[in-house]
Every structure is written in structure tokens, then in C-alpha cells.
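Q: Here's a chain of 119 amino acids. Please give me its 3D structure as C-alpha cells.
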Amino acid sequence: MSRYLLLVFVIFLTSCGQQLKDKAHALHSADSTAVGQWTPPDENIKDLTIYKKGGKVFLHENFKDNSVLNEEMVVESTTNVITLKYKEIIADQYMVIDKDGSLKWFTPDGREYAKSKPK
């Protein structure tokens, strides 16, 4: 009888744990909205995601050495493109999301040097 009760208790805890995990995931997902994900031109970066959270736009990069960069971006929007610049000047480059959803990288003088279609 005690083994049966222990088994029921373990199943109950497992079920509760999964529910808590699902709830945490749902809260995290609702907390931010992905704008898109692209493959960056820098081979040291695995992926790049731009997302909105709390009315702000952020750039999230996962590096091959497992480090992460999360930077707030300044957004300038027109009817055809969205321009993204670093809020804290960590690089002079800037990015543009065009009407097709492609992400383009530009040098400070406005020369395009890379482009990636959304994943």
C-alpha cells in the first residue's frame, strides 16, 4: 500500500512540475515578442534574434563560445524599412529590416556589407 501511495505522490509531483514549467514558459513567452531571427555575417555568432519587450526593442546574439549579447536598440521606422542602431554605442554599424523581412548590415558611412533572410 505504501508503494502505491508513493507512486501516486510521485506522479502527482511530476504532473505539478510539468504544469509549473508550462506556466513559466507561457509567462516568459508573453513577456516578449520576437520580431525575427537571422543568421549574422560574423561566423562567431550562432544566431541573432530581435525582439520587443516592455515597449523596447532588443538585439539578442548567441555566440559559439556560449556567451550572449543582449542590447537595447534605437528604432527608426519608415514605410519601407526599420532601421536599428545600438542604444549604447558598442559598434558603429547599424542594421535595417527591409519590407521582405531581410536583415541588412551597414557600415557607419551607409555601405551595405551583409544581408540575411529571416529563418
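Q: Can you summarize the key feature?
A: The chain has two domains: 1-31, 33-116.
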